[in-house]
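Complex 417.
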Amino acid sequence: SVTLAEFDAELSEAIRNEERRQEDHIELIASENYASPLVMAIQNSVFTNKYAEGYPGKRYYSGCEYVDVAERLAIERAKALFDCDYVNVQPHAGAQANAAVFLALVKPGDTVMGMNLAHGGHLTHGNPSNFSGRHYRIVPYGLDPETGLIDFDEMERIALEARPGMLIGGFSAYSRHKDWARMRAIADKVGAILWVDMAHVAGLVAAGEYPDPLPHAHVVTSTTHKTLRGPRGGIILSKGQGEDFYKKLDSAVFPGVQGGPLMHIIAAKALAFKEALSPEFKTYQRQVVTNARAIAAVLQQRGYKIVSGGTDNHMMLIDLSDKPYTGKDADAALSDACITANKNSVPNDPRSPFVTSGLRIGTPAVTTRGFGVAECEQLAGWLCDVLDALESGSSHQVACHVREQVAALCRRYPVYR
Ligand code: PLP
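Predicted structure with pyridoxal-5'-phosphate bound:
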């Protein structure tokens, strides 16, 4: 047998370089994390070879007895983790879970209300470039420009006027708690379905560190690879809605938007949910929030503005709109220091989404590699040093200095080695 390096030197080198990059860089992209070695190993299992269209016990192919075990484990563990009575673990990713919800619960042309992408929503919540924005009449809601908080009164006013068939809760960039009970009350007033996409905060929800949407929403979707720290994938959850509702969701996933499920990923989801049911996972999620607060405090002490004034979850959005440089410049300067974050629009951003006036940072990945408050405060200090230097034109020199300290810290906290 040949090794990967012998058979495909280019690919082998790309993987080695990526392994090194993940070890040597500090990862602050709020949607990323490091899956455990066991989650990684299961994705590499023979389950990848198996076709299993359908659901456990009702497959279109023979030979599904062992993949059925894996899928049933994933479903049962997710039900225990999120205290719910319906789970579909087949969505290939968050976007597919969301597509299935649209397909199951509204018709093309129906009115749907979602959080404005520019205020922290996700593409699949109605952006014009996405299927959601193309096929449905989207009415966005957003943040109060003064406070940077979701304006629930305004959400209610818009809902009463637009009368959506579905109201979407959930976000890709919002650092505060969302009031799910209030959203359900608004949905009930207009007869809308409440769907919460908890992709970013699912791990925090599982650990009791973020308000649980399941008692309030008709349906909840999530990715499995962000704070939840599993393999890349999606899930759909629900509670107390009854079999007819669940059948609609199941048939929207398969055969609605997908063919054969990725059984190796579903097995890895089962393992990740077992990890998430452990006491260590709760401790980890608590530390994720503590670390985010520690970073926000340093940034604010050093004069940086955080949208909404702080964070209650794993992320924050730094508002750079009063700075002489852009989000893109900040992103590039931090990359130069081996710190990976992402440029992000801030509410009412005058700049394009490719340039932006903000930076989104999050703590799931650094917390997984073992950073505590002391390391996060140090890291936040370096972040400020690099950004300060952008104003004086000395960011490259400062980045070179910070890079050495980043390398030393990363060696102290290896990800996999
Ligand atoms: N929903 C939310 C809130 C997200 O932030 C994301 C990804 O960033 C998704 C859905 C889409 O997930 P995926 O990239 O797995 O399709």
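The pocket of pyridoxal-5'-phosphate is lined by residues 31, 93-95, 98, 122, 124, 170-172, 197, 199-200, 223, 234 (CB under 6 Å).
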